[in-house]
Design brief:
There is one protein chain. By secondary structure, the protein is an alpha+beta fold. It has two domains: 204 residues, 2-Layer Sandwich (Cytochrome Bc1 Complex, Chain A, domain 1); 200 residues, Metalloenzyme, LuxS/M16 peptidase-like (Cytochrome Bc1 Complex, Chain A, domain 1). Helices cover 41% and strands 18% of the residues. The chain is built from 16 helices and twelve strands.
Length: 451
């Protein structure tokens, strides 16, 4: 046992060393494909990330879910490789290969032992250029997705998140969190092939490779062999529209016989290129990120309203969603909502303490450092930086920019973005048990949950 150790105080967090990324080599093929190369020999694996501006915001209104189905089906067979053969070839190089969609992007991610980098690039190129979307694979994926949607829409947190997105983002595509079953039913092989041909092309893409890259000339030759013949097309127009102005609203989704109430309050905030973003990030951390945050300490530990209370900032390319959330017993729903709004209000009116500010900055810089620890994570961060149009030094300057945020900037950001009168509030619970107690918060809109 260490003598004279004060166990009532947490250990002092030493300052992080300045972030020094390995050199990033950038090149552009004649067809417009951007390529970022990072030689990182810490592990004998090559990590590939290929991202497109082809997220769910680009779904046609009648075909919501098209981007996500495209991503999920890319590796389920190409023009020369049936699904089983494709999977066997990925396994033969000790590799993994996946694709996913986000609101803004479609991202293919792969890794393999570095001695098989050329084969990995061949497989990545084949699936994004030549995915064939076999009818049987499409039918199976659609059937599974319909079952997943039925389950997801039975969950109160999903119902609340969906409604909040619609209130916050209005008619912008960001408002759509999940597709409707009818939309999934309308999607077939022809729609998937059309989406692939319109959005998965080199002018709309960024390729990142991180790992022991070996001979650079040979690597570039491999990239050109797999991707240079890819036909360039004009970049697609940005799908979007105007955002509604943040405004107070109060919606109760009547979910009969719910044993608890899901509470969330949120609004649209700024994207990562805005000067307010870093003060807002620190303010949100003080409010609701981690066990030392105000929401966790007060709503959970002091008041005992629920197991969890937190807030988050979810950035997108053009905006971000702020939300503060908790789940409580029906009998304390009104008190918990009042306590949540009180904490938001307090952050706009009262200075944060030096200890709170330092704790939040330590949390953010520490988790950011962890997010860059592995070559795969670094590849993902580099791709995100480029696709989101962030400054070239965004990763290197993240820590000093967090450290530079002052208590006054935190309060100013909270005043701009955490004012309770600008928040959309959504509750999911049994209206017969909670509706009357919510009238004090303003005009209440009650909506039935349909199963």
């Amino acid at each position: 046992m260490t003598p004279n150790l004060d166990r009532t105080r947490p250990p002092v967090t030493p300052p992080l060393e300045p972030l020094r990324l390995p050199p990033v080599e950038e090149l552009r093929l004649a067809n417009g494909l951007e390529v970022l190369l990072v030689d990182d020999a810490r592990f004998p694996m090559t990590h590939a990330r290929l991202g497109f501006h082809a997220g769910t915001r680009f779904d046609p209104p009648a075909l919501a879910g098209l981007a996500e189905l495209t991503a999920q089906l890319l590796k389920e067979g190409t023009e020369t490789r049936p699904a089983r053969r494709f999977a066997e070839e990925v396994a033969s190089i000790g590799g993994t290969l996946e694709a996913r969609s986000t609101p803004d992007f479609l991202i293919a991610s792969g890794s393999a032992l570095s001695e098989h980098s050329a084969k990995l690039l061949e497989l990545v190129a084949d699936m994004v250029r030549h995915a064939s979307f076999p009818d049987e694979e499409v039918a199976l994926r659609k059937q599974n997705r319909l079952q997943e949607l039925a389950h997801e829409r039975s969950l109160p947190d999903v119902l609340g998140a969906e409604r909040l997105c619609r209130l916050v983002f209005g008619h912008h595509p960001y408002a759509r969190l999940l597709p409707e079953a009818e939309s999934i039913e309308r999607i077939g092989r022809e729609e998937l092939l059309d989406f692939r041909s319109r959005f998965l092309h080199p002018e709309n893409a960024v390729l990142v490779l991180v790992g022991p890259l070996g001979d650079r000339r040979r690597l570039v030759e491999t990239i050109e062999t797999q991707f240079a013949g890819w036909k360039a097309l004009p970049a697609p127009s940005v799908a979007g529209g105007d955002f509604p102005e943040p405004a107070r609203s109060l919606v109760l989704l009547d979910r009969r016989d719910s044993v608890q109430v899901d509470i969330r309050a949120g609004r649209r905030t700024v994207c990562r290129t805005h000067p307010d973003y870093f003060p807002l990030l620190v303010a949100n951390t003080i409010l609701g990120s981690g066990a030392s945050s105000r929401l966790f300490r007060i709503l959970r530990e002091q008041m005992g309203f629920g197991y969890d209370a937190h807030s988050r900032i979810e950035p997108r390319r053009e905006a971000a969603l702020f939300s503060a959330e908790t789940q409580v017993r029906p009998e304390v729903a009104a008190a918990a909502l009042e306590a949540l709004l009180d904490q938001l209000r307090a952050l706009t009116e009262e200075p944060v303490t030096a200890e709170e500010l330092e704790t939040a900055q330590n949390f953010l810089t520490g988790t950011f450092a962890i997010s860059l620890e592995t070559p795969g994570a670094l590849a993902g961060q580099l791709l995100s930086r480029r696709l989101n149009g962030l400054p070239a030094d965004y990763l290197e300057t993240f820590v000093p920019r967090v450290r530079a945020v002052t208590a006054a900037q935190v309060r100013a950001a909270a005043a701009r973005y955490f004012d309770p009168q600008s928040l959309a509030i959504v509750l999911v619970g049994d209206a017969s048990r909670v509706a009357a107690t919510l009238e004090a918060f303003g005009a209440l809109q009650v909506e039935q949950v349909t199963s």
